[in-house]
Amino acid sequence: MSELQKLDSYLSEAGPAALVLRDQLAPVEGVGGVFFPPTFAAAEDAKKFPGGYNIDGEGAGSVCLVDSVGSQANRIEPLFAKDEYRDLVPQVVVKAGEHDINMLDAGHRAGDALVRCSALQEELQAAFKALLKGDASLLAKVAPTSLVFGVWDSRDTQAKAPRLLASTIRAFNVRRLTRSAQFNPATEFVNNGMLDEPADTATKKAYAERGFIHVPASGSHGGVIADGGIRRDATLSLAALRIISVGKDAAATLALRRYILGLALVAFTSNVSGYLRQGCNLVLDAESPQPRRIEEVHPDGRRVPFAITHEAALNYAREAAKAFGVGASRNVEFDKERAKKDIAGDPKKNEAKAAKKAEAAAAKKSKAG
User: Fold this and answer.
1) How far is CA 290 from CA 225, 230, 286, in A?
2) Residue 265 lies in a domain
3) How does DSSP classify residue 247?
4) Is residue 67 part of a domain?
5) 8 A C-beta contact, residue 241 and residue 260
6) Which of 58, 130, 167, 292 would be a feasible disulfide site paired with 135, CB 3.0-4.6 Å?
7) Are residues 56 and 200 in the same domain?
8) Whether residue 142 sits in one domain with residue 241
9) Domain identity same for 38 and 124
10) SS3 151
11) Angstrom distance (rounded) from CA 255 to CA 324
């Protein structure tokens, strides 16, 4: 049996539905340490969510979102730009002004405005149109990680590829903390006659913003303590992988699925804990009685231990990439004129939309009359 054939059971309709991973994490300060989850803007109805930490429930049953599915995807995907992994995928770099941005860092991947408004526009549009017809090979030649982390060409063809790898970090049984601070200027600018007394609220606010007067900050977000631990849950959907195809070409479909499986396994088995944001530096909890657990989950509910290491996954990915043929790396420039046309939209679609809106308005007016 060749190296590539060893995992073909994952590509079989009778194979596992998914691989699932569970990591127990802890702040670098240790279990019970304070860490800072992300804060979110308030919902339109502030009564439903006033903004701040995303915590569901209270006390012993509370669950706090530490890193979302989208955020985790955007952290993991740039892995493929590192030296050890860069040969597995095309390195597509877009020059935007003074910045060179790898497509692996673009939040919407192949559907991102950055790459859509470049010389790749027509190629990606053709790839998305082929995807709608059941052929994912063109997209895999330009942006294969879009088939791993999911993509939606929402601004053009509406083509979608499902997210194969989903990872989320949550904390349990959290205690919410607050903190207060006091800013003191280097000297008393007003009292020492260096600045005039602020004449109104706007001037006082300007003094505060520029650091010329004392500014208290009370009751702001002070992080959380997770009495129930911090956990990363990841799923690699093999059932969704088996949807990817190259039309009815069985041999080409097998090569493509092996390639995408290799990329997904490399991402799945990588250690993505670490620095998430200021005050949130997480590592594997080496003292946890429940170490990393990875299982194959079968359609009948059976759970079988998954024993593939990251090194083994990387070796498989290299063989699969070689057999599939990695697309060309290239450098392109962001095109301002394409962006202007993109913003303006398709004239025909705009006219059809305006006509439909006018028709609806006329019907409403006729009904009211």
Assistant:
1) 19, 12, 9
2) yes
3) T
4) yes
5) yes
6) 130
7) no
8) yes
9) yes
10) strand
11) 5
Q: What's the pLDDT at 8? A: 94
Of the candidates 320, 316, 318, the one whose C-alpha atom is nearest the C-alpha of residue 308 is 316
Query: Other CB atoms closer than 10 Å to residue 349's CB: what's the count?
Result: 9
Tell me: do 180 and 139 sit in the same domain. no
347 within some domain: no
- Residue 358's pLDDT band, with cuts at 50, 70 and 90, is low
Do the beta carbons of residue 239 and residue 18 sit within 8 Å?
Answer: yes
Tokens of 229: 């631990």
Distance CA 115, CA 90 (A): 14
Same-domain pairing of 94 and 181: no
Tell me whether residue 343 is in a domain. no
pLDDT tens per residue across span 96-113: 988 999 999 988 888 888
Claim to verify: residue 80 and residue 8 sit in the same structural domain: yes
Residues 288 and 24: beta-carbon distance below 8 Å: yes
Residues 117 and 32 in one domain: yes
Q: Which residues pair with 214 in a beta bridge?
A: none
Q: 162, 154, 151: which is closest to 103 by C-alpha? A: 151
CA distance readout (Å), 67 to 76, 132, 211, 250, 365 = 12, 31, 33, 38, 49
- Residue 206's identity, in one-letter code, is A
Supply 175's token pair.
């205690």
Look at residue 108 in the predicted model and tell me its pLDDT.
86
**326 φ/ψ sector (left φ>0, alpha ψ -120 to 50, else beta):** beta
Residues whose CB is less than 8 angstroms from the CB of residue 183 and which lie 6 or more positions away in sequence, other chains included:
211, 214, 215, 216, 217
Q: Looking at residue 324, what is its pLDDT?
A: 97
Residue 152 confidence (pLDDT) above 70: yes
Is the four-CA dihedral 205, 209, 215, 221 of positive or negative sign?
positive
- Domain boundary residue, one of 189, 221, 253: 221
238: region left, alpha or beta (phi > 0 left; psi from -120 to 50 alpha): alpha
Give the count of domains, the chain: 2
Could you tell me what percentage of the chain is helix, strand and coil, using 3-state DSSP and rounding each to the nearest 5? 35, 25, 35
Give the end of a domain, one of 186, 203, 221. 221
Question: In the structure encoding, which two tokens stand for residue 120, read together?
Answer: 């790749």
Q: Are residues 212 and 76 part of one domain?
A: no
CA atoms within 13 A on the CB side of 244: 31
Nearest residue to 279 via CA among 177, 151, 137 = 177
